[in-house]
Design the sequence.
């Protein structure tokens, strides 16, 4: 059996991948439906932005506490509770988005309930994401973690890309209510699959350690483990400066003059690139010099962002975004595998929670950075500047953290 497929030999890992795929799929479907419904109710684009902020704030605030709890808890049960919580929330959101319900309680109250549901989703997200990372190592032997990480990343990417598209198709064909019913079915599949996995209790827990000592220990471990610190810092700053997606509407309208149809294609290009590379890596796994390859890919990502920023041809812009997805897909697999292999079992929850803060900060704050620099210097210079800064981050990492470019697994 190919090394890439080794993780699939284990029944519990197969059940977990099924649960994770449907979980990410229906979460993205739900987020798409909620954003459409809120905009339909308010006709205000700012109200959509508030959805992301409402979920982001509790996810970041709860991240440190979540890491402490995850490292002391049965990770299978934690995922079950997260799935169940999302199932209940989806049921409530299904009811509140009925037209009759909105008329009964009023539009403002309906919006308040929706935002409250999104807020609770952010709390659950603080637990589900890091627990998902920590659980993988308890489902397969350590020597098969690279294979498991590839499938872990692949299932997330495919579900994240498919969710919004599927939600749009179903919304247009069977309507909002029945689409929500299918989302409830998806969460049920998650629960059933996860229930088939045995208990995964915490390992090496110091019960006398306070929560503040636990969190401090997590920070200390990440700070002292240069490979992990360098890896997540590289991801933070590269995405923070290199995130051009926030300005895609401007490019589609003003620079490329393609309108909303072109915008849809531009948004899909990086995801398609990531899917392609995940399919390739599944067949031909990365076998050596992975750290050096990750730095090359992040540097190439920066170059593609610069190319996109300067391009005035639609096909060239599509190519640049597609290749940015390819290069980012490779670096994501390497980063995820490094985190899995370098983190001891009893620290996985805290390390994953810290990593989730870095990831969320890079995505959310990266969009803000793009908008802010675009206002200061114009959209095109802002994107080019971001790509140049990504290259600067790679060069700095190459010389300041030589252990990263020498890493292999």
Sequence:
């Amino acid at each position: 059996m190919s090394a890439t497929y080794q993780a699939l030999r284990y029944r519990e890992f197969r059940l977990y991948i099924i649960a994770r795929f449907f979980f990410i799929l229906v979460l993205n479907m739900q987020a798409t439906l909620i954003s459409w419904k809120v905009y339909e109710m308010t006709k205000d684009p700012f109200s959509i932005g508030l959805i992301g902020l409402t979920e982001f704030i509790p996810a970041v605030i709860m991240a440190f506490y979540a890491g402490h709890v995850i490292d002391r808890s049965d990770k299978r049960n934690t995922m079950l509770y997260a799935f169940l919580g999302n199932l209940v929330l989806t049921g409530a959101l299904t009811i509140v988005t009925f037209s009759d319900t909105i008329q009964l309680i009023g539009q403002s109250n309906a919006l308040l309930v929706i935002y409250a549901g999104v807020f609770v989703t952010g709390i659950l997200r603080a637990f589900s994401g890091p627990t998902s990372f920590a659980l993988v190592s308890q489902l397969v032997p350590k020597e098969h973690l690279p294979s498991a990480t590839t499938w872990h990343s692949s299932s997330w990417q495919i579900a994240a890309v498919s969710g919004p598209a599927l939600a749009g198709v179903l919304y247009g064909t069977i309507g909002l209510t029945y689409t929500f019913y299918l989302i409830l079915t998806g969460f049920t599949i998650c629960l059933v699959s996860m229930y088939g996995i045995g208990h995964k209790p915490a390992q090496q827990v110091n019960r006398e350690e306070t929560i503040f000592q636990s969190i401090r220990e997590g920070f200390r471990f990440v700070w002292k483990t240069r490979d992990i610190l360098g890896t997540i810092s590289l991801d933070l700053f590269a995405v923070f400066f290199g995130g051009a997606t926030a300005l895609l509407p401007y490019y589609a309208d003003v620079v490329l003059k393609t309108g909303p149809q072109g915008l849809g294609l531009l948004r899909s290009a990086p995801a398609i690139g990531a899917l392609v590379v995940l399919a390739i890596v599944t067949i031909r796994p990365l076998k050596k010099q992975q750290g050096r390859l990750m730095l090359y890919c992040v540097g190439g990502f920066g170059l593609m962002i610069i190319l996109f920023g300067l391009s005035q041809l639609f096909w060239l812009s599509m190519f640049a975004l597609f290749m940015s997805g390819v290069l980012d897909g490779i670096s994501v697999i390497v980063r995820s595998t490094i985190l899995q292999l370098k983190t001891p079992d009893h620290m996985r929850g805290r390390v994953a929670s810290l990593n989730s803060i870095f990831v969320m900060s890079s995505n959310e704050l990266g969009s803000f950075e793009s908008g802010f620099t675009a206002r200061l210097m114009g959209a095109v210079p802002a994107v080019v500047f971001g790509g140049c800064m990504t290259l600067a981050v790679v060069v700095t990492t190459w010389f300041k953290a030589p252990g990263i470019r020498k890493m292999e697994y």
Q: What stands out?
A: The first helix runs from residue 11 to 42. The chain has a mean pLDDT of 79.
